[in-house]
Write a structure and sequence with these properties.
It is a single chain. By secondary structure, the protein is an all-alpha fold. It has one domain. It is built from seven helices and no strands. Helix 2 crosses helix 4, helix 3 runs antiparallel to helix 7 and helix 5 runs antiparallel to helix 6. The chain is globular.
Length: 186
């Protein structure tokens, strides 16, 4: 991650709109934002191949590619529909780079859950609260980035967040569920 992108991620993670200016909102900038995620996916693919699971490796690689590219495809369609084409790359680059906030946010949620358990909260309740906190943060950050980068109304911003997240989740999850159902009937 370049230094300006890291600054942009740090600013946006704290809901500071000026972080948007730190990103290269060009096609090359989007490819640079996707590159580390694609590299991780390819390394995982090769490791699974070496481990002797070529079918599972290919399935995981394809699922990862869908998860990486679907937000950009869906958001571009909506940005075009709403006349926000010119701002779309700014959104796509910022959104993609800001996915690096999620691992530390997950760690914070796990630590918070652990503190709740130490304070006497039942394990299941603490885990649920940690997961909800992470979900609320992730959706709030997505909403903030979309609203600021695309300059949309609250309703359109909520729609893009819902469509991108539900659409991506469905495109990644449904094939897995179908495969599981087909394997269960064989």
């Amino acid at each position: 991650m370049s230094f300006p992108a890291a600054i942009g991620v740090a600013r946006l993670a704290r809901f500071k709109a000026d972080g948007l200016g730190a990103f290269d909102a060009t096609p090359t900038g989007l490819l640079n934002a996707l590159a580390p995620w694609l590299a991780f996916a390819l390394v995982g693919f090769v490791l699974m191949l070496v481990g002797g699971s070529p079918g599972e490796a290919l399935g995981d690689l394809l699922a990862t590619l869908v998860a990486l590219l679907t937000p950009a495809v869906l958001s571009q369609a909506l940005a075009r529909l709403w006349g926000r084409d010119a701002a779309w790359l700014r959104y796509a680059v910022a959104f993609t780079w800001c996915q690096w906030v999620m691992p530390p946010a997950l760690l914070a949620a796990l630590l918070g859950s652990g503190m709740l358990v130490a304070a006497g909260v039942p394990d299941d309740a603490a885990e649920l609260l940690g997961a909800l906190a992470l979900l609320v943060y992730a959706l709030s950050l997505h909403f903030f980035i979309a609203r600021q980068a695309l300059d949309l109304s609250r309703w359109r911003t909520a729609a893009i967040v819902a469509i991108v997240n539900i659409g991506t989740g469905a495109l990644v999850t449904v094939p897995v569920l179908v495969r599981g159902a087909l394997e269960g009937t064989a």
